[in-house]
Design goal:
It contains 14 helices and 17 strands. By secondary structure, it is α/β, with parallel strands linked by helices.
Amino acid sequence: MIKVLFLVLPLLLFAREAAVSGVFYPLNKQQLQNDVHTYLGGATPSEKTHNKAFIVPHAGYKYSANVASKAYINLKKNYKNIFIIASSHHYTYSGASVYTKGDYKTPLGKVALNLELAKKLVRENALFSYKEKAHKKEHSIEVQLPFLQTLYQKGLKIVPILIGTKSTKEIHTIAKILQPYFQSDENLFIISSDFSHYPNYERANYLDKQTIDTILSKRPSAFVDLLIQNDNDKKADTLACGWSSVLMLMYMTQNPKYQYELLKYANSGDVLGSSKKRVVGYGAIKVYEKPFYLSKNEKRILKEIAKNTLYEAVLNAKVLSLDSRDFPAKLKTPYGAFVTLYKNEKLRGCIGTFEPKEPLYKVIQQMSISSAFHDTRFQPVSKEELSQIRIKLSVLTPRKKITSLDEIVISKHGVYLQKGSKNGTYLPHVATQMGWDAKTFVQSCAQNKAGLDKHEYKDAEVFIYESIEF
């Protein structure tokens, strides 16, 4: 019995106790539950989007919870992991500290860590470590938990990370390390930061607008310049106490598909009865993935390119000359695409590419020629056939690696498998036409497209993508 206690007690002792309950938020469980429900009940969700991250404040609930709830009310989806990234208020150290010693506690109960993932980050990356003293009194992660506990109750797993470095180079490296987790739809990132500290009410509004506008611009260098300018001019004690975490997020979201949206701004002077002489600013900002789409005009141009290219190649053995000066910017951006030819509703050729270096309009032109002349399953398209040929274009979003077949949405996602030198793909419509579930979809792709045994998909890298077909 003594041995059993000896084995169990260390696990209990390492649970991270609540450090700021009764100060930043209520100590009493029922009161805390009531308060969080009230805050969430007073918030209205923003327009539904594919949410990737939120910047939320971390002050006392009396001052900042009405702003934070404007972010949290948008959380409907269940996530495998919620990364909570904050900047250390009490200590400076190289890299970031990942909590790896047990669950977090609040008056609402325990919040489970993804301990395996937390330890993996520390084990595999020199910039990640575990610094117990950094987490012990830090409030910026803890105050987010009652909102998450109320929304998710069971099944919640967090990865708490405290950035301790002031080096932009190290912050950039941290962003690169976490980027694959950010890209996965299984995960959500919560960035914990307040804005300006202790200017008067009017100046806080002015300074925070500058800070927020710079964040929304997605320009990390401009954000750093603004911070340096403030340090030099002493306009406020800080423009953002979690600046390193915000900067890391900005580094991770340079892809044009990521968009920022301000959900709400306020400062402590907006709270009834509070002083307006020295205030703290709070903002809720959403980061979402903008869905890829093509306008009617963009589709029209691409269809004309495909058809005219095909006719020029078949009739005159020439590559159609294109003047791209007036083409929309999206058509000048590299995107993968497939061109499929049908004759009397039967396949007559299909060739495409996933990761082109050429702009989309050139990809469509090249794949139109390849489908007509270089699909080895068919003879080249002849002049006599042209009037019977129907062309279908499939423009592809970038591939995203998945770890579970549950991430595949039939009719929405195509699949791409790769194992060693073998690879293959199915476009999204294939599963719909065949009436397949996700597992059958992937198994068939492995066997019939990648040249693998159907069960080898388990050892292959599996990617999903979306396709706009017209």
